[in-house]
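Quick question: what would this complex look like in 3D?
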Amino acid sequence: MSSPTLKVGIVGLGRLGQRHAINLAQRVPNAEVVAACSPVPAELDWAASTLGIATGYADYDALLAHPGLDAVFLVTPTSLHADQIIAALRAGKHVFCEKPLSLDLADCLKVEAEAARHPQLTVMIGFVRRFDASYHDAQQKIAQGLIGKPYLVRSQTCDQNDPSGAFMRFAPTSGGIFLDCSVHDIDLARWLLGNPVPKRVYASGTNAIHTGLQAFGDVDNGLATVEFADGSMASFMASRTMAHGHETLTEVFGTGGRLAVGSNPRLNRVEISDAHGVRNECTPDFYARFADAFLIEAQEFTDAALGRRTLSLTLHDATEATRIGLAMTQAMREARPVAF
Amino acid sequence: MSSPTLKVGIVGLGRLGQRHAINLAQRVPNAEVVAACSPVPAELDWAASTLGIATGYADYDALLAHPGLDAVFLVTPTSLHADQIIAALRAGKHVFCEKPLSLDLADCLKVEAEAARHPQLTVMIGFVRRFDASYHDAQQKIAQGLIGKPYLVRSQTCDQNDPSGAFMRFAPTSGGIFLDCSVHDIDLARWLLGNPVPKRVYASGTNAIHTGLQAFGDVDNGLATVEFADGSMASFMASRTMAHGHETLTEVFGTGGRLAVGSNPRLNRVEISDAHGVRNECTPDFYARFADAFLIEAQEFTDAALGRRTLSLTLHDATEATRIGLAMTQAMREARPVAF
Amino acid sequence: MSSPTLKVGIVGLGRLGQRHAINLAQRVPNAEVVAACSPVPAELDWAASTLGIATGYADYDALLAHPGLDAVFLVTPTSLHADQIIAALRAGKHVFCEKPLSLDLADCLKVEAEAARHPQLTVMIGFVRRFDASYHDAQQKIAQGLIGKPYLVRSQTCDQNDPSGAFMRFAPTSGGIFLDCSVHDIDLARWLLGNPVPKRVYASGTNAIHTGLQAFGDVDNGLATVEFADGSMASFMASRTMAHGHETLTEVFGTGGRLAVGSNPRLNRVEISDAHGVRNECTPDFYARFADAFLIEAQEFTDAALGRRTLSLTLHDATEATRIGLAMTQAMREARPVAF
Amino acid sequence: MSSPTLKVGIVGLGRLGQRHAINLAQRVPNAEVVAACSPVPAELDWAASTLGIATGYADYDALLAHPGLDAVFLVTPTSLHADQIIAALRAGKHVFCEKPLSLDLADCLKVEAEAARHPQLTVMIGFVRRFDASYHDAQQKIAQGLIGKPYLVRSQTCDQNDPSGAFMRFAPTSGGIFLDCSVHDIDLARWLLGNPVPKRVYASGTNAIHTGLQAFGDVDNGLATVEFADGSMASFMASRTMAHGHETLTEVFGTGGRLAVGSNPRLNRVEISDAHGVRNECTPDFYARFADAFLIEAQEFTDAALGRRTLSLTLHDATEATRIGLAMTQAMREARPVAF
């Protein structure tokens, strides 16, 4: 095909980075991965041998200087996001960056300010659930008035328990369960409620299994309530201790009905009837649940960067998600409501 | 209360007979169990001590002569049904009799003829599913036109496997799986399709586990198709080898939609999410599934016998169920369609 | 039967009172309704003509003096509960009383104190959900360790919207949505978590449809979080604005799994497949959902009063439910956590 | 990437042909569509403008002579399949061909014979359901013994009703509902039961809405039973008159449990609770249900043709599906069992 392609540099090739790389290299028709960047040589080898990405950089600035590069895909530690985005923008590159934008509100605002200086560049934070077919359908139905005026979102991100507690090593830098997990739910709630302004949050949590989290002011199960200025509300749950799998569930209550997305985290269409009853297996992790959405997300970023469509989500949405997530974390730690 | 009560004699106090007796004695306000009849002295003792039924008879004719008796409830072996019904009618008693009416078509017709001579007496064969709230709701919805014109019923009666094979001792007298189990589905199909006239049946079966049934010309899994004269159809399955519980499922396909009754044989409203997935437990047997319907059935019989309502089902319905069940059995044994 | 019966006086014959009366009169074998009490003559007439309860009293003290009376069933306005229970106890009667015990904590404690003086008398507050077969099953499974250690209950009572807003006339005396509706969920959470001690509650709410509730400090949708001293938590939702029906849903999260009771408020076992998709109808109100539980509850009260069993729930449970409900109400009105 | 690619010619660019072309051109990494063949110039234009397939042929033989062509993808009328496959094989090309292989058993055998002369060439008939993740999972579970020994498959292909009756124009050439729709179910049953040998079939049908089909000996609703030599059985339903959407459902009953694939044809993970009850929307057509499977199928064909894997299904499987489908059609038309 002679249509233009977006020349992308993938930055960060951990587990999720590899999946993004595969999508961009093989399944997004107008994207081409021209270079990879990672401090880990084995990851660059993987990119070369598996996806034919010949050029690998250990250094991010070197990647930005790659000839003909149009865009970067940042799948890096959150603490690097703000600086890497700003550097890319200054180098004239479109930027996709995994969520959350940052754990620091000032950094979020700095990124917003820099992006405002480059209106021709696409910047997208990967709130992947917005690209899931079911969430998209729900949002469309709400926009069409199917459930009247939405006034309450209840949303949860519940991970399957990892008895090894491997996630504990991210505890010092994850920002806590609300910024790590609930940030998705916060973004969904804002999106599905029509971007209301937050007024007050309250949160609490407990450590049901991984008591070691307490040392980091973190919990393995958290609850939070957000009240918005227009009277709408959101209720969140985040957990790392599910026995049955990863369960992302979002309900939107409206004056004329309710939509639920994900009320049974079924793995597929198989139903088993045996001595355990009638049952279905569950999605083991977020990637099993959102694999298709990651592809659609990459496609939409590519199309937006190529000027073929506008994005529905903004950098400010990412800032708001961090702002609310930080307030929830504070509310839990101080056992008091936090007002905005 | 001063309203009249129906004085009932319960005949047969096996497991199902005891349940009928409890319903009549304790939960049907206008029924009173004044006597019991059983050849087993222990069963009469149970009736006396548990339900306060003071009078017990070993002999059926003696029961019929019990002073003031209004009605009998026959929960006896199928081979006795026809004679017992006829004797009760001749004694001027209302009759409830468990399904099937008989395994012999001539006997069915004899009972119909006798009943016609006693139009003031209520005779009811216990097609209990007609009294289940869900089946009743489905029938009402069809009558209201919710699914347009119904043209196909698919119905199954699938029992949980009993590894002990205890049911094998009924094999010589049960009439086979179609008369024992499918007779309910046949009755439902006729009811829900508006009593169409059968034209042709075909059936087949296999012994998946209980190969000993072969000696009786019986199977532990059977399939049958019935074509009716008006173009409507029915497809039946009967099984004795389910791992998960008792599953009665009936679907009615209409030109404007489909109704399903029982698509998951859930035991209750509890859902378990654990290492087995998301699951619900199942009804273990027909009584767990239809306990409420047995009570409604007894109530409706009582009300009909007291002249407060008319019955929706007739003796002829029971004859038709036997007629079709016999044809299905013949079709399976001869591996050919049987026409009516 | 010669076994002893409990001679009951039914007090209050509104809609729910009538249902209790029918259960006691017709379906609880060992109960006998010997008298009724109501200030409304038509209600006493109904009791006489429908249930044959010949004796009716306008005056509660007169009822308590009814010869041979063993017990009272109080289905009266909440504001009368405490005094009526105390009077009955002093008259030597067993007492069943509808929930909530009282909206006033001091009154709850007074009732507890009086009851302690009559240990031979049964006093039961009608937390009907404990008698529902599904909740009972869930509680048994937890006790057996099926889900490990339970650490979080999420429970909701959501009523179908009544566009007429008829419930508004109860707003001045209902105590608010948390005491009217969530009191059930509070009791369930305590029961299913093993009676933890409450530490702190937070609550918030909104008026999505019935803005007139604001005048009473009430809301039509409320959210609350309870933290217990042992680290366990509860999250509640109450609503009066569901479009699809009455939905009572309770989830219990444990370290080894989760139980959900009522995740789809299906009316029955009928599933409809038509232009609206695949669907089931819903229970319209709490009585449709809990009709069986009301009967089991009446049976258990009767058996306990007759000395045949002990009760699993205590007056103190009812006091605790009021205590927590009051704190939730206060937290919402003052927008701050309330500590115990 | 330097890995070899399969140079494919797409033949037939109707609706399904276009979807195959998009998959091959954009989403199968190792496939390249180098030429298209269609008698319709507008279809070749579409291939050029949308997918950049520069070379288009009106003539199939010309396509086969395209330089460097490795494989053909036949999405053509069934009546052409046999000759086109044979021509491709003689030209040394790998062949993918849509189902059914042929409506003529002799043609099936001719194709099998020709393929046997070219063992180095991959020939695959598109029984797409084998490549669906859920069916694949079910098959794996059966192979692992999860449900014991499978003895009965019940499977259905039910299309949403098209009130326009557009499908009627295919009636003269479709081979009837069993060869057009049930051929998938037949293939699934053989696969999931371990390729049993058919012994006898019976079938019947009715025209619930599209009575015009009668003129072609066809029906809009069909039922069929297949008995296999090893005692296992299959029961099929095919329909063109569903109100709610396309529903493909397959159940496998084993001595230790049952698997169901597709028991609710849910469109996605959205659940709506409103005045219609609790509901989900449904897949409108087979492509909405099996879009992912079509991609996996194309990937597996490509990998097989490139020598990277072997196929799990054979040409003989396709012959067997036609053989059984023809017998079912005959059984229905002659109202008698057809033995093999």
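Answer marked as accepted. The first helix of chain D runs from residue 15 to 27.
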